[in-house]
Amino acid sequence: MRILLAEDDKKLNESLTNQLISRGFNVDFCYDGEEAFYYAAQNIHDVILLDRMLPNMEGTMVLTKLRKQGINIPIILITALGTLNDKVTGLNLGADDYLVKPFAFEELLARIQCVTRRSPIINQAILPSYCDIRFDGTSNTLTGPAGSCTCSKREGAMLETFIKNGGQTLSRNTLLLKVWGPDSDVEEGNLDNYIYFVRRRLKAVGSCLKLRTIRGIGYCLLEE
Q: pTM score > 0.85 for this model?
């Protein structure tokens, strides 16, 4: 699962980023509203953690602009403003949840699980599955009819992306953004390498699924 964290308190940002990564999430982070809007507008994240009081562009404005563009990624507003009116305003602007500082990390995890579980764009937030395979992002383990295998973090991110979009053709650019992130300078040849690795993983667990090349477009995970 890929998370965007927009928080201008650098110590809190670093702490949350490290804790989320330790729980198996891929995290992109930023410190101001303009950056947050730029990253969020790529529409590659599964959840956005958005501080309400950000420099350059307030979190509420980021939220408003994203919803006007039709971007429906689950967004949790994180803020020190905890009055009933503040919460109602945030939710009415399109936030999926509202978390008041200070908060326990375990509560944040529970909120992430809640908004992704009910999101129309994420069907199975904890253990994504498709056809005869299931992927556990916490342990980076792929399970199929012939058993399980451990994947690298990058392989896992790619597998999770394909599993959540089973049967759909994903462009090469979409995969580069979702797996490596918007700021990565990765060469396209690396994508070809990981496509090869994912095919090997599918074969290793005995899956009937095949990762097909859609010429001129990208790739699609299909049942044979």
A: no
Q: Is the pLDDT of residue 121 over 50?
A: no
Average pLDDT over the chain, rounded to an integer: 88
* Contacts of 82 by beta carbon, 8 Å cutoff, 6+ apart: 100
Q: State whether 76 and 173 are in the same domain.
A: no
Beta strands in the chain (DSSP E): 2-6, 26-30, 47-51, 75-79, 97-100, 129-130, 133-136, 141-144, 147-150, 169-171, 209-214, 218-223
Closest of 3, 7, 95 to residue 55, by C-alpha: 7
Structural contact between residues 134 and 125, judged by C-beta atoms closer than 8 angstroms: no
Same domain, residue pair 83 and 180: no
Together in a domain, 13 and 107: yes
